[in-house]
Design brief:
Blueprint: H1 4-10, E1 15-20, E2 28-34, E3 39-44, H2 48-60, E4 68-72, E5 75-79, H3 88-102, E6 115-117, E7 120-122, H4 130-139, H5 148-159, E8 172-174, E9 183-186, E10 189-192, E11 198-200, H6 203-209, H7 217-223, H8 230-249, H9 254-263
Antiparallel strand pairs: 1-2, 2-3, 3-5, 4-5, 6-7, 8-11, 9-10
Helix pairs in contact: 3-7, 6-8, 8-9
């Protein structure tokens, strides 16, 4: 990992052993055993400084995040945490943490800087209302990158998105990429990693968390009451990560996109 040694020098140590970690589809992530006995995680990429600022924002809102030890060039150093199986208590901790996060309000929808998932750019600029933000900044952010038939279906959907999504939900602080792989269950801690923060409808995080599975009852009880019709909007919020997966990983995700469009009548 280029720049790793310089980053370690900033915190007064050096690498003894470097081991690749899983989850490095979009960035390089390694575990570093250090000469002073510490174990760290190093993540390399052009946006690590932005990610560090997002982790800080989550932490200020009361969400559990790993400690950022240093950002040097394109390398971020984080505390290393051991993963353990998720218990009902750990899921409940996640529910309470996410409720605190979503209680943190922003001045409007979006974020003060853009982000990206690999080659998929994320424009977080403001919009007139929430359906407008979701249409222009998410579902149709790059229509030229999609097959023509899917693009036409998305354009038809976004034209009536104001009938599906609330106009002005409270702008909650979102993790922004909260699939279950970005929740780390450690001994005594449930930690959020790899954020893509912005302010938006809190149901976005819940939709992402249920895209590839569903949390147990303990999570939902701890998170608190949901709008009775939230599941009617879930497909609209899951469509964005499905489109991202289609663009990044190919046509294997097209059935997911088409299924969500069908659920939305598109």
């Amino acid at each position: 990992m280029e720049g790793l040694n310089a980053a370690l020098e900033e915190i007064g140590t050096r690498a003894v052993r470097v081991t690749p970690l899983h989850g490095g589809d979009l960035s390089q992530v390694v575990r570093v055993e250090c000469s002073d006995g510490r174990a760290l995680v190093a993540k390399a990429g052009s946006l690590v400084a932005r990610e560090a600022r997002m982790l800080a924002a989550l932490g200020r809102a009361g969400a559990p995040v790993p400690e950022v030890l240093a950002v040097s060039g394109q390398v971020m150093l984080l505390e290393a945490l051991e993963e353990v199986p998720a218990s009902p208590q750990a899921w409940a901790d996640l529910g309470r943490a996410l409720a605190r996060l979503h209680a943190c309000r922003g001045p409007g929808y979006g974020w003060d800087e853009g982000y990206a998932f690999g080659r998929v750019a994320i424009d977080n600029g403001p919009a007139a209302d929430w359906p407008d933000f979701w249409a222009r900044r998410r579902l149709l952010a790059a229509p030229e990158a999609l097959p023509a038939d899917l693009r036409a279906r998305l354009e038809a959907l976004t034209a009536r998105l104001s009938d599906i999504l609330p106009a002005r939900p409270a702008p909650a602080l979102l993790h922004g990429d909260l699939w279950q792989g970005n929740v780390l269950f450690a001994p005594g801690r449930t930690v959020l990693i790899d954020p893509a923060c912005y302010y938006g409808h809190g149901e976005v995080d819940l939709a992402m968390l249920t895209l590839f599975g569903s949390p147990p009852k303990a999570f939902w009880q701890a998170y608190g009451p949901l709008a009775p019709d939230w599941q009617e909007r879930r497909a609209a919020y899951q469509l964005w990560p499905a489109l991202v997966h289609l663009r990044l990983f190919g046509s294997g995700y097209r059935p997911m996109v088409e299924g969500l469009l069908a659920r939305l009548g598109g």
